Amino acid sequence: MSRALCVIARAATVALRLAPGRGDRRLFLSYAVEVPVAAEFDRLTFWMADAYAARLQLAGLAPALAAPSGDWLSSVDPHLLGREVVSTTLDQVPPGRMFLKPALLKLVRAPAGVWDVDEFRRAALADGADPRLDVQYCRRLVDLDHEHRFVVCGGQVLTGSPYRVAWRAWSPSLRSDRSPEAATFVGQAVRALGDDCPPVCALDVAWDRGARRWLVVEANPLWASGPYSCDATAFVDAVDHANTAGLGRWAWRAEETQLARARAVEPVLAVGEDRATGYVEFAD
Q1: Radius of gyration over every alpha carbon of the chain, rounded to an integer in angstroms
Q2: β partners of residue 176
Q3: Burial of 214 by CB count in 10 Å (0-12 exposed, 13-18 middle, 19+ buried)?
Q4: Which partner for 161 in 87, 203, 228, 266 could form a disulfide, CB atoms 3.0-4.6 Å apart?
């Protein structure tokens, strides 16, 4: 069986992190204009930011990507979240000052944070967001520490890594003395979610300093999530599953904001290796 993993990114950082876990897969790094031809492999798996996934979708090259929906977090038991999260659209957020974020999309001018609603809306629209963009807000502010990412696949927690501890962002040397507690909590959370847990995702949890308890921060598409110090083999195997598990309620679809951006740039092409100039293979 011939398998390949294609990382679509501007830099080789993620490809290098995932390389030890590729197994018998060939590993390609694409700069987003060209990708390998899927028919040349029994299985072609993609890791990429959602902006690149939108470009693949427009080109008819996207696999069946699995992802939590934009309103998934607001459907989770508030006890697991430690706060009430409300899902709505950019044009429907009520007035006030609160924690605000795009549900899944990343906006440079309107990142997740505490915002006045009018300021957030102006920043998001200036960044090209559609007024119907899915967003989430929370009026209770939380002070988080020991933030961890876990890979969840088929109801099992496969691997995990701290990514922010005592205001220090991730580096290969980052450690948390509370990682065992985080692992215990995420296992409990996955069991409590049951069938409402995405079939495969990056599930982030953290310690709430104020409430002195663990909580679920968010869930993200694994195929678009940083691996940090997760076990590379477990991570790549789960990303492989995330490229085929996008069915029904778990099917990822690009938002209009993403599609509008994708239409404005050069289309992605599937090109055979003998003619490729937009991607390279990582040698063994």
Answers
A1: 19
A2: none
A3: buried
A4: 228
